[in-house]
Amino acid sequence: MAGAPSGYTKLRACLKCRMIKTEEQWMKEGCDNCEGLDIKNDVDLMINCTSARFEGMISLISPSESWVAKWNRIEHRVPGCYALDVQGVLPDDDAEEDEDKA
């Protein structure tokens, strides 16, 4: 189960699911929502698959019961903090993996 960012500096949002964590949390835990995105202990992948440029923040405690989660289409995500909008593009390799799964 995910949680809130452990600090207020060096926050980054996942480019796929918009989850917000600190750089240290990304390196230690990876992404709790994105199965095919294994960014633990990989600085380059963490930098390429997350972005420090995001707007707004939603704190999600009970995703399935939250109308805010439903409105933002994140009701099936793990509890945690999510960006309203993330600026950036996933690397081509990761985007191709998503297309293969669809």
From TrEMBL:
<comment type="similarity">
    <text>Belongs to the SPT4 family.</text>
</comment>
<dbReference type="GO" id="GO:0008270">
    <property type="term" value="F:zinc ion binding"/>
</dbReference>
<keyword id="KW-0804">Transcription</keyword>
<dbReference type="InterPro" id="IPR029040">
    <property type="entry name" value="RPABC4/Spt4"/>
</dbReference>
<dbReference type="InterPro" id="IPR009287">
    <property type="entry name" value="Spt4"/>
</dbReference>
<protein>
    <recommendedName>
        <fullName>Spt4/RpoE2 zinc finger domain-containing protein</fullName>
    </recommendedName>
</protein>
<dbReference type="InterPro" id="IPR038510">
    <property type="entry name" value="Spt4_sf"/>
</dbReference>
<dbReference type="InterPro" id="IPR022800">
    <property type="entry name" value="Spt4/RpoE2_Znf"/>
</dbReference>
<dbReference type="GO" id="GO:0140673">
    <property type="term" value="P:transcription elongation-coupled chromatin remodeling"/>
</dbReference>
<feature type="domain" description="Spt4/RpoE2 zinc finger">
    <location>
        <begin position="11"/>
        <end position="87"/>
    </location>
</feature>
<dbReference type="GO" id="GO:0000993">
    <property type="term" value="F:RNA polymerase II complex binding"/>
</dbReference>
<dbReference type="Pfam" id="PF06093">
    <property type="entry name" value="Spt4"/>
</dbReference>
<keyword id="KW-0539">Nucleus</keyword>
<dbReference type="GO" id="GO:0006355">
    <property type="term" value="P:regulation of DNA-templated transcription"/>
</dbReference>
<dbReference type="GO" id="GO:0032044">
    <property type="term" value="C:DSIF complex"/>
</dbReference>
